[in-house]
Design goal:
Layout lengths: L1 H8 L6 H14 L10 E2 L2 E2 L2 H13 L16 H7 L8 E5 L2 E2 L3 E3 L9 E2 L1 H14 L5 E5 L5 H6 L5 E2 L14 E2 L4 E3 L1 E6 L15 E5 L3 H11 L8 E6 L2 H9 L5 E5 H10 L3 E4 L6 E3 L2 E2 L4 H16 L5 H8 L1 H4 L18
Parallel strand pairs: 3-7, 3-8, 12-13, 12-14
Antiparallel strand pairs: 1-2, 4-5, 5-6, 8-17, 9-17, 10-16, 11-14, 11-15
């Protein structure tokens, strides 16, 4: 019965055969990680002590999107280490998503290789072109949502470009670039659902979020503060955001909460679901790197300055190609404000 319902629901990817290809690719390319549940943030178990540390960091933090270094084109030890890689290993290693439609996804219709495509992928190639002189000098690593920070800290990747929100808890663990996209949390639910948005209509409803995501931490905090009904079940978490759409299609949850930019892409994949209500937060995506990689952070910030100025092949062109169909032709609401930087020391 469940299989029949899933086959009937998966329309946005062109049916069962295409989804089978996507699932196979996910199995081949994704990194293996254990399934995470509530209480897990970016792969780290939240103990009482670590939670206290996170809460203290959040209290001391204001405007996390402004906690980045000023732009510079100068080379440093981090960049030189990337350039010193030999032969085929001379590539920028980047953690990305491979199943977020129009952001970072493997298009099964693009040929045998099913190359990664999307808004985030365009930015990765621009960074690789600037640092290594070749937009294809990239080793992509598929990183689940809850493994983004561990992958950076463990040195598995040089950076993560994966619709990653800059927030106070995360800047304690990794360094971020200036923002490259503005979004906000929204509710995604079936068109026939009585859910109206992020309000009392979520009472007695089951919500799915990605483990380690801003969405889950927001729901947890809002429920604690009484902003979200106490009867709302937020216990369903998954490693990758697209898994929430599948849970919704299977009827295992009543709604998904995620960034509006991602939710709009999921609605484009499945015409039976839609965004409910307006965004209830304001958030910014950034490129995440190691805390001590100052030269790489500054270089990426310089690349972002140039990328936004490049009207022919830069930020606007990428938005028009990948996101305008789901977010609208007016990119102003998604373009972050002029960046602000920490004063140089």
């Amino acid at each position: 019965m469940r299989a029949r319902r899933l086959r009937a629901s998966l329309k946005g990817w062109g049916g069962v055969a295409t989804m089978a290809v996507v699932c196979a690719l996910v199995a081949v390319f994704a990194l293996y990680v254990p399934l995470s549940g509530p209480g897990i943030g970016d792969g780290r178990a939240v103990t009482q002590a670590s939670r206290a540390t996170v809460e203290k960091a959040e209290e001391d933090c204001e405007a996390p999107e402004k906690q980045t270094l000023s732009p510079s084109s100068a080379d440093g030890d981090t960049i030189q280490a990337v350039r010193d890689r030999e032969g085929e290993k001379r590539k920028l290693i980047v953690g990305v998503d491979q199943n977020s439609y129009r952001w970072g996804y493997r298009n099964p219709n693009s040929g045998k290789t099913a190359e990664l495509e999307g808004f985030d992928i365009d930015l990765v190639r621009r960074i690789a072109e600037d640092i290594l002189g070749d937009p294809d000098a990239v080793q992509f690593k598929a990183i689940p949502t809850d493994q983004r920070i561990p992958a950076i800290q463990d040195g598995r990747v040089d950076m993560v470009v994966r619709t990653m929100t800059i927030n106070c808890a995360r800047i304690a663990d990794v360094a971020f670039s200036a923002p490259y996209f503005k979004t906000g949390q929204q509710v995604l639910a079936p068109k026939s659902s009585p859910i109206e948005g992020y309000d009392d209509t979520l009472a007695n409803r089951r919500i799915c979020t990605a483990a380690g995501s801003t969405a889950y931490s927001t729901l947890e905090a809002d429920q604690k503060d009484g902003k979200l009904p106490a009867t709302t079940d937020i216990s369903t978490t998954v490693p990758n955001q697209l898994d929430c759409l599948v849970r919704l299609q299977l009827g295992e949850v009543d709604a998904v909460v995620t960034d509006g930019a991602l939710a709009a892409s999921q609605a484009a994949q499945d015409p039976t679901v839609q965004l409910k209500g307006d965004a209830f937060t304001a958030e910014y995506y950034g490129v995440a790197m190691k805390k001590d990689a100052d030269d790489l952070v500054r270089r990426v910030n310089q690349i972002l300055v140039d990328y936004r100025k490049d009207t022919a092949n830069g930020w606007q062109a990428s938005y028009d190609k990948w996101l305008s169909a789901t977010l609208g032709k007016d990119a102003k609401k998604s373009e972050p404000p002029a960046p602000q930087y920490l004063r140089s020391t």
